[in-house]
Design goal:
two-stranded antiparallel ribbon; single chain; alpha/beta; 537 residues; 17 helices
Length: 537
């Protein structure tokens, strides 16, 4: 009898518990390989699980449509006409028999490694858009024991969009888990990093990438694109109107992004290979409506002598070789559409006042490219606890219509926002302290930004102490073109009205009272001990 696909509800299945079990199986199994090989096997199996599940849903939906039309989906002629070479309109892939999850899950343990590589090879052959998603021989080269592989696959079988929700980036979540649990030495600088959903949601909510082209020069697992697509859906948009472009240096992460986007049916161009955005820009000469990115913080080793006179910074200065922060900024700016492109990206806070890049920052401000600077809370990320900044660049601050809103002229103004105190939402079950931005907080921050942009707002007096303030270029110039929000946002001195003499007097009285009580308690204790026959000194 065929093994039943697990469709239990989320409350009875904990994703972390399943992933922990998978991790445990891989740790104990022989030939499971390095961290990266374990991750590749895990993510590839999850992809096969999800693409198989989507195929099964597509077939079920097609059967229901045929029945509605009075046709018999079990008739041989109907099967030949509709199912043997099925075409789906929602991006679902028509899988060969050997690549379907039901085939895999019911393969005897000794044949699983061969069956899995056969499935991958047949998918890549039948579907050109999935070519390059997999490492050939992923499973046969590792050659894990059949029983270990069977246990592993049985756990993967429990991870289902039916159980955990269609809207969730489950491949991204698995990737995030691997970084957290396996990659002890993985750091932001090494490129092994996953951007939490709440931060992506913040960026997407502010720049509104509803249609057109979106670009991410360091796209990782593709999470930025997926979250953007979900935002478009929530706004009753059509994701077929979005075309995403990206680039990723790490080969394994590049494959993961291709899997993730293919699974979602999102049109994408990640280039023909994985490569460095700086030394081999795979999308040179293309300009985009939106850019969303979370580049490696303070990246070192990015520079080569061939980049000294690169056209991307010809109107500015060559970015410091010691740190790629401003190289990322100028690279993204070079790809924004000149008339109306908008970019939202994260950088380490040091970029706000970095003296090595002060001249570049000055020119960015004078050229009116910077629209908003938003400092985020600490501990939003898994692999670093630092506070980072969301930058928004805008090629058009002159105003006009934008996504149904009427925007005012905001030339030579920058909105500063400081959200570092928004740390009251701890994430439970994490090994280290982590907080998240809730939907109402994201909505509030977005409203602050939108209200500042819109017609009728007086930018010269738009502020709330300790939270946000609109600042003109003359004041920024007086501060040596620093973009550190605390230079401009008023912070209330809550100590100014305190009567320190009274506080000291009250404190002294309290201490004196405590000492008196202590002496009295000591006396009672000594008397009690004497009655028991103990001698007290």
């Amino acid at each position: 009898m065929a093994k039943k696909i697990n469709t239990k509800k989320e409350e009875t299945i904990n994703l972390d518990a399943i992933l922990f079990k998978c991790r445990d199986i891989l740790r104990q199994a022989k030939n499971s390989g390095s961290f990266f090989e374990k991750r590749d096997m895990m993510l590839t199996l999850v992809f096969l699980r999800f693409i198989g599940e989507k195929y099964e849903n597509g077939v079920a939906h097609l059967r229901a449509q045929l029945i509605e039309e009075g046709l018999d989906p079990d008739d041989e002629n109907i099967i030949s006409a509709f199912f043997d070479d099925a075409t789906f309109t929602d991006g679902t892939y028509n899988l060969p028999l050997e690549a379907r999850w039901n085939t895999i899950i019911n393969t005897p343990a000794p044949g699983l490694n061969v069956a899995l590589d056969t499935a991958l090879r047949s998918i890549a052959t039948a579907t050109p858009s999935l070519k390059g998603c997999f490492v050939e021989g992923t499973f046969t080269q590792r050659n894990m024991a059949g029983n270990d592989m069977k246990k592993f696959i049985d756990e993967i079988n429990k991870i289902s969009h039916k159980a955990f929700g269609e809207e969730k980036d489950l491949i991204g979540r698995v990737y995030e888990y691997f970084l957290k649990e396996f990659a002890v030495n993985a750091t932001k600088e090494e490129g092994e990093f996953y951007t939490p959903h709440d931060i992506v949601q913040m960026i997407a909510s502010m720049i509104e990438p509803f249609d057109g082209t979106i670009y991410d020069p360091c796209c990782g697992s593709g999470g930025m694109f997926i979250q953007s697509a979900e935002l478009v859906k929530s706004k009753q948009g059509d994701i077929s109107r979005i075309n995403v472009y990206g680039q990723e240096k790490e080969a394994a992460t590049y494959r993961l992004a291709k899997m993730n986007l293919a699974l979602r049916g999102i049109s994408h161009n990640l280039g023909a290979e994985s490569d460095s955005t700086f030394t081999n820009d795979l999308h040179k000469g293309i300009y985009f409506d939106y850019i969303m990115a979370n580049p490696p913080f303070n990246l070192k080793g990015w520079y080569s002598d061939s980049l000294e006179t690169d056209a991307r910074w010809s109107d500015y200065d060559t970015p410091p070789a010691s740190n790629a922060n401003y190289a990322w900024i100028l690279h993204m700016l070079s790809h924004l559409k000149h008339q109306n492109g908008v970019a939202g990206f994260l950088l380490a806070n040091g970029a706000l006042g970095d003296t090595d890049a002060q001249n570049i920052r000055r020119k960015l401000i004078e050229n009116d490219k910077v629209e908003a600077i938003i400092v985020l809370p600490r501990e939003l990320f898994i692999t670093t606890d630092i506070s980072v900044t969301l930058w928004i660049l805008n090629q058009n601050k002159k105003g006009g219509g934008y996504h149904g809103r009427s925007l005012r002229n905001r030339e030579h103004e920058i909105l500063f926002m400081d959200l570092r105190t928004w740390t009251k939402n701890p994430v439970k079950g994490e090994q280290k302290k982590k907080v998240e931005l809730k939907a109402d907080q994201i909505k509030y921050a977005t409203e602050i930004y939108f209200n500042w942009q819109e017609v009728g707002t007086d930018g010269a007096h738009y502020e709330q102490p300790e939270l946000y303030r609109s600042v003109g270029i003359k004041e920024i110039e007086k501060n040596d073109f620093s973009l550190v929000p605390s230079r401009y946002i008023e912070f209330v001195d809550r100590d100014s009205d305190i009567d320190f003499n009274k506080v000291l007097t009250d404190t002294a009285a309290t201490v004196s009272d405590l000492l008196k009580r202590q002496r009295k308690n000591d006396k009672i204790l000594r008397n009690a001990l004497k009655q028991l026959g103990y001698e007290c000194k």
